[in-house]
């Protein structure tokens, strides 16, 4: 039995909640979540103990409010009740409750969940589906634009564009070419920068196909350099659904949740990563720096490849759920380049 | 109904993008009217807009190298579409330095304005980005509410000062009062006034110049120093000023005492009229 808190609110309630967080952020960089039968109290006190704020949301404020304390029996056979003591950095929670007007307009539900034995607070936003105003954008990039282009079969994958944008912005700064590795829907997408000075790897989850659609791959055909396909479909517009919501949840404190084996898998990925893989696949023409376009969607220089079954990069990938923990692992051993 | 247009000139494309950005700042939702010679962005004076109306007009041949349209019918050779202005400006963002821009009316599950941007690329083929913007076709019976607003004879017509300056003044005033008095005379003087219980603030603009008045007789009767004034909602004025990212080629302000203020701007060859009603 652990102390826990679970509450659900609507978009307008989330706006009020967010306003409380914003007000308390003026007092201190730390926020306490303190649930009790009276409701959920948000507390903040500054370091010099000269200001204190407490906002108590009664249980009826929420659409759903559930909490429990940890009850312990000590030696004297007395019960001690330990309430959930949850402290969050304002830096983590404030960005979530930033655009409150848009929250009110677009959010159907906001769920907050935490447990004393979990060391994280999960905040989930469920967006309203307003397809009547969604803009659908598509970009076609011909195979000629790539330094290397090898697609086994026509593929369509869906992933979070916001994350991709961040990676592309970084790659622009390095002026290094990016390699993209992907497989069928559900398997992760890997973006890799590997040159003399910098090595970077980003792995993004993709939406899995619905069970009704057949996802068994046909026998892959290699080296179809001239094969054109619509590579990436991006859904523009304000509303975000499904997979991308996972990006929003934050952790209170970094913690290794998964066993060490997973780390090995990631190491295997890193070490068998770009340089090794490239060599195994024969000569790759020297990639030159390409001019970076001004447009948001256009990547620098992309190198796409789909591997055959034996060397399928994706098969060494760890479970998708560990992706969010990758940044918390200690940095992996880097190859020495003999740079002075 | 059919509509297909293409812009290949870089300067025209940038200008069109700027106009679209301006419209997005002035009206969340607006009507796009397509006729054989012109494109109009329209906001009619519904209660929902707070009585504000906008009429933006551009000559299609100044922008498009190709322009084909087929309206509702031969007698009603026009198309009226309702769209979210920001969708168009965001789509046009990708058109910076593009080779060409194509806009056409399509039906992909629902009626759309499809904006197709052809970008330069290193290879022989082009990169094409397509954006499908959902639109609503406005039925014929509602067209009468979307006609060019009648401009009443103003009491005073005056050239506006630098809009950026006006905007920063009004921005500060907004913190003090929710309504503002705009007044001007035929001596080239324009004042922006706010008044509360505690404070009164007036900003004076002088030597602005007045365009020649339409009718000679009124100018003879009028004392040139006499101020024509109108009380308006300060936020509406601010929204109008915030939409003007670039200083216009020509900017005129027409005041009808206690009725409305009418802004008449020219951004190169695109005209923008914006009407703010008096507070009742």
Folded structure, characterized:
Chain B: It comes from Aotus nancymaae. Chain B: Its main location: cytoplasm. Chain B: InterPro entries: DNA_clamp_sf, HUS1, HUS1/Mec3. Chain B: It is found in: Cytoplasm, Cytosol; Nucleus. Chain B: One of its GO terms (cellular component) is nucleolus. The complex is a heterodimer of chains A (340) and B (280). Chain A is an alpha+beta fold and 340 residues long. Chain A has a domain at 4-207: Proliferating Cell Nuclear Antigen. Chain A has helices spanning 11-25, 90-93, 100-106, 161-174, 260-271, 274-280; strands at 4-9, 30-36, 39-45, 52-57, 64-68, 70-73, 79-82, 86-89, 107-115, 121-127, 136-140, 148-150, 178-181, 189-194, 199-204, 233-235, 302-305. In chain A, helix 1 runs antiparallel to helix 3 (100-106). Chain A is elongated, with a radius of gyration of 24 Å. The N and C termini of chain A lie far apart (56 Å). Chain B contains 5 helices and 18 strands. Chain B has 280 residues and is of the alpha+beta class. In chain B, helix 1 (10-26) packs antiparallel against helix 2 (85-93) and helix 3 runs antiparallel to helix 5. Chain B is elongated. Chain B folds into 2 domains: 2-145, Proliferating Cell Nuclear Antigen; 156-277, Proliferating Cell Nuclear Antigen. Chain B has helices spanning 10-26, 85-93, 163-174, 216-221, 234-242, and strands spanning 2-7, 29-34, 38-43, 53-59, 66-70, 79-84, 98-108, 110-119, 127-134, 136-137, 156-159, 179-184, 190-195, 200-205, 228-233, 250-256, 260-267, 270-277. Classes of the chains: A alpha+beta (340), B alpha+beta (280). The A-B interface holds A 132-142, 144-145, 236-237, 290-291, 293-298 and B 84, 87, 90-91, 93-94, 96-97, 108, 110, 119, 121-134. Strand 11 of chain A pairs antiparallel with strand 9 of chain B.
